[in-house]
Write a sequence for this structure.
C-alpha cells in the first residue's frame, strides 16, 4: 500500500480540474446575477443555483463567498497532500493528513451541489481510495513502539478519513430543501456526516459506488 492516498500526479490533476470547476461556477453567477436577460439554458441553471441558496438560507452573495472559501480550502487541502508525498515522518504524516482531509471535507460540504459530473466522479473515486486507505492506515510507517506513541493521532486520522468519505457518500441536495424544518433536518444530517462515524457499511459503500458509476 502507498503511504499517501493519492499520487502526486493525481493531486495536481485534481487541483486543476476542481479549481476550474468552481471558478467556472463563480464566473457564471457573476455573469447571470446582475441581469434578467438570459437564454433558457442559463436561466434554468441559474434558477437551480438560486434554489440551492434558498435551501441553505443564504443570499447569492453569501453563496459566492462560500464557493470562494470552498475553493481555497480545496486548494490548500490538496497542496498539503502533495507535500505529504515528500515526507516520511509518521507523526507529521498523520497530523498533516488530518488537516488536509478536514479542509477537503469542508469544501465538499459547501460546494458539492456546484460540482460537475466529472468532479463528482473524481471525488467518489477518491472516497473509495480513502476507504481502502483507512482500512490499512495503521500499518503505515509504524512499528510496535511507534504505535504506542501515536495511537491517538492515528484514531483522529481514521475519523478525518471517514468524515471525508461521509461528505461524498452523504452529499446533501440543498436545492430540494424548501422549508425551515427541512433545513434543520439537513443540518442534523451534516452533523452526522462530520461525526466521523461510517454512514455506510463497506458492502453498502461498494454498492453505492457501483450504482453511481452505472448512473454516470
Amino acid at each position: 500500500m502507498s503511504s499517501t492516498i493519492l499520487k502526486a500526479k493525481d493531486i495536481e490533476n485534481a487541483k486543476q480540474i476542481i479549481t476550474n470547476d468552481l471558478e467556472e461556477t463563480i464566473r457564471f453567477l457573476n455573469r447571470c446575477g446582475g441581469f434578467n436577460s438570459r437564454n433558457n439554458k442559463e436561466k434554468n441553471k441559474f434558477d437551480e443555483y438560486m434554489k440551492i441558496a434558498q435551501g441553505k438560507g443564504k443570499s447569492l452573495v453569501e453563496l459566492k463567498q462560500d464557493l470562494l472559501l470552498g475553493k481555497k480550502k480545496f486548494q490548500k487541502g490538496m497542496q498539503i497532500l502533495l507535500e505529504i508525498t515528500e515526507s516520511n515522518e509518521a507523526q507529521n504524516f498523520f497530523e498533516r493528513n488530518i488537516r488536509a482531509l478536514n479542509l477537503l471535507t469542508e469544501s465538499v460540504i459547501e460546494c458539492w451541489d456546484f460540482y460537475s459530473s466529472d468532479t463528482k466522479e473524481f471525488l467518489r473515486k477518491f472516497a473509495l481510495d480513502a476507504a481502502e486507505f483507512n482500512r490499512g492506515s495503521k500499518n503505515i510507517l509504524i512499528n510496535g513502539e511507534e504505535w504506542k506513541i501515536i495511537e491517538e493521532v492515528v484514531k483522529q486520522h481514521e475519523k478525518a478519513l471517514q468524515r471525508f468519505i461521509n461528505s461524498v457518500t452523504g452529499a446533501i441536495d440543498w436545492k430540494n430543501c424548501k422549508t425551515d424544518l427541512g433545513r434543520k433536518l439537513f443540518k442534523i444530517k451534516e452533523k452526522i456526516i462530520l461525526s466521523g462515524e461510517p454512514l455506510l457499511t463497506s458492502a453498502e459503500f461498494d454498492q453505492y459506488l457501483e450504482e453511481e458509476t452505472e448512473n454516470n
Remarks:
- The mean pLDDT is 77.
